Amino acid sequence: MNRNALLLPFLLTVITFGLASAAEQPVRHVAPATVVMQFPPAFGDMQRPAVEFDHRAHTQALEAEGCEACHRIDGDGVLIPKLASELEIDNRDDLIDAYHESCMGCHRERSDEELAAGPLTCGECHVKQNPPTPMRAAMAFDYSLHARHAQAFEDKCENCHHVYDEAAQRLKYEKGQEEACRSCHDEVDEGRNFSLANASHRACVSCHLRRFRLELDSGPIVCAGCHDSAERDAVDRLEEVPRLVRGQPDTTWIQNEDAKSATVAFDHLGHESVTGSCSACHHQTVKPCDECHSLQGSPKGAGVTMAQAFHLSTSEHSCVGCHGDAALHIEEGGGASHDLSISYRAHRALVQGANDLLRPILVGRDTRMPDYLVLLSTLGGLTVFGASGFVIGPIIASLFLAVWVMFAKQHNV
């Protein structure tokens, strides 16, 4: 018998059991205060499994020493998030040595003093296990929380908001130019511009610590206070949240001179009452949508066109995406205003009716499909799929055309 014929079933069996084992691996959650310690991308991959650092356990064990046990606080009282011993390190080997000396050195000292101590061997920190699923929630700064901060600082916006003065090369405050932190701070440090995580920990945690030490009302000083959903939801909310005024209109018109669609009236004040924060719609800055999005799409808006910004159903920031989520919440019995429920159902009935009556014309116009192709794809869809083919046929035809156009452009056909 051919050896290959015997080898094939064996290989299939091994692959099957391997896939089954991988599928059966349980999901392993890690707490919000657990930090997975990886190398910076520039330093390459780690030789050992990443360390899962329990920040809460260390905070509790070193409560008497405070944050300074691991971190440095500068002359302005700003907490530097990095480990104190790694601040001036720019290479892989020195970074490894710094963590080993700081962490293992502390563990040995505490062990010698017969205090609760951490691991003393490599394998106790670098444990090979299933990839973790973090329970860490992104920090959310809603209208109520913003109002509480405004009250604590007597409406002095300059305590948190600033812009960078290129000429003077320093931060300054400009009235009326207040933005969300993400408008300047991205995912990673870029020169002197800190990442969002780095900037917020420096500013927010440092402020909370100062107020805590002065015995004033303070925000969280441990990870879970901001990143544990349950603890964050337990924060007291203001019964009456004042309007966050940033020069926005009560009502406005959404329009574009070159667009074929009609102008849309937009109730900005009404939307403020049903959103949690400005970032619900203004995801990067609080500037108007057309500052970044254009009809054809621009690099400033990551190539997202104006139509996609308003109509993309898979985006929580678009109008259609947000309304779809609200509608689903209504249909599942979730709480929603009576006006929202009625407007959604009326809108759905109107759009559905228009779609059934005008779909062939609209499909042909929006996708630039010839009328004969719309007709043929509709008839073909009805023949193959039945009544649902009225929609499925033209969709398949339009997808084919889109793929063909992309192929032709890529290969210069």
Describe this structure in words.
The chain is mainly α. The protein has four domains: 30-134, Cytochrome C3 (Alpha-Beta Complex); 143-233, Cytochrome C3; 251-336, Cytochrome C3, CATH 3.90.10.10; 357-411, no CATH class. 44% of the residues lie in helices and 8% in strands. The protein is built from 14 helices and ten strands. The strands form five sheets. It has a two-stranded parallel ribbon with strand order 1-6. Helix 11 crosses helix 12 (338-366), helix 12 crosses helix 13 (371-385) and helix 13 (371-385) packs across helix 14 (389-411). The longest helix is centred in the C-terminal third of the chain and has 29 residues, at 338-366. The two termini are 50 Å apart.
Briefly characterize the structure:
This protein has 413 residues and is mainly alpha-helical. The protein has helices at residues 3-24, 55-61, 92-112, 122-125, 143-152, 196-213, 223-227, 229-233, 268-272, 306-311, 319-331, 338-366, 371-385, 389-411; strands spanning 28-30, 34-37, 51-54, 72-73, 79-80, 132-134, 163-165, 170-172, 251-254, 264-267.
Layout of secondary structure:
Elements: H1 3-24, E1 28-30, E2 34-37, E3 51-54, H2 55-61, E4 72-73, E5 79-80, H3 92-112, H4 122-125, E6 132-134, H5 143-152, E7 163-165, E8 170-172, H6 196-213, H7 223-227, H8 229-233, E9 251-254, E10 264-267, H9 268-272, H10 306-311, H11 319-331, H12 338-366, H13 371-385, H14 389-411
Parallel strand pairs: 1-6
Antiparallel strand pairs: 2-3, 4-5, 7-8, 9-10
